[in-house]
Amino acid sequence: MTPEVMNPGFLDSTGEAIVNRQLEEGLNDVIKAIFTPEESRRIRAAVVDLTGSKLCRPSFAGFSANTPGDGGSLAKILAIYALLQLRFDVQWLATSEDIRSRTELLDRAHKLWAGAGVPRNVHPEAAWLLFLTERPGAPVQVEINWPAGRLVYCTARNCNWTASLLVSKLGIPFITSAVWQAGLLNRVRGGLWLTSGYCQERGKPCDTRTDHCMADAREPDCTFPGEMLRSFAQVLPTTPLSPHNVTALGVAVFYSLLAQGRLPDGDATGRFADAVDGACTYFWPRSLPNAIRIAAKCGRTVDAANRETELGHDGALVRRFVTLHNDYTIEYAVVLLTTGIKGKKTKFPRLLDSVDRLIQRLNPPPSPELRARSPRP
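The structure assignment produced for this chain is given below.
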């Protein structure tokens, strides 16, 4: 996996987005209908049409989509993705080198990370994050273990302490490498970036009914050593505006690659959707009928009393049936990043509903005759 090949199909050779004018005109009309001119200056948006054959060659439209900013909790998708990538990498290592010993597999992984110049103290804690099963006559089987799964559960639900712990156990160098190699960060267009945890004290659990957030006694390391940041400076387009940097285009690229089964594979697509099932969302995509797969994750900031403040973001991947007989589907990614916008609980669902209708209009169902001749999946 390299940045050059991780193109969802709507980026040119420099990494800039190729815009579909018809989709862009529709998105602009949607934004004008929902937001005032003043509000429009404080939003960033993107839509990717992934319906049918467009899955491999999507149509893209954006609205200030390349403007960077603080992603809040939306950037936590990078930590969740990096854990899925770690599992994939270690399983690939075990299979490709026919490693049948758990100890040998961990030693080999750490040697590879050390060979790449990563200090031992910031290697992924693979022994803690992964469940490694030795099998007679077969390579070690790799799965995400239960404690790491609970970290993901709470991270998806905006627990800052568990998000920081997950980032710390993965290590910023590994997260950075995964994001860079996946093409989610580009020197031209910028994109998604995570340079620290969220540094919330462990005394504030994400779920008061359980101790999910107390999965480890060690406090997470929320800092990113300066020498490591300098070593990654070559991949940064600019100094990030936030340690949790996002653009609407970057989130759109993420969800498009996820839909295509490339982050890192098709199995991980379902795993990510399961991980964020029940996560915070302003879009409420499950209000749409006949959903096949939904993945959504919000980003927000709150004050000491847990009241929402300026920032409110959401990104979603939607695939659903749109006809009575369930023989026609649409699929799309939608991203809305806002700062200082009131009425988010009504405006986000309105935008999702309008985008859904726009995607339907641009992808009319085939005629009854054509559907009758088409083989059923």
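Interim note for the steering committee: Residues 200-235, 373-377 have pLDDT under 50 and may be disordered. Residues 76-96 form the longest helix (21 residues).
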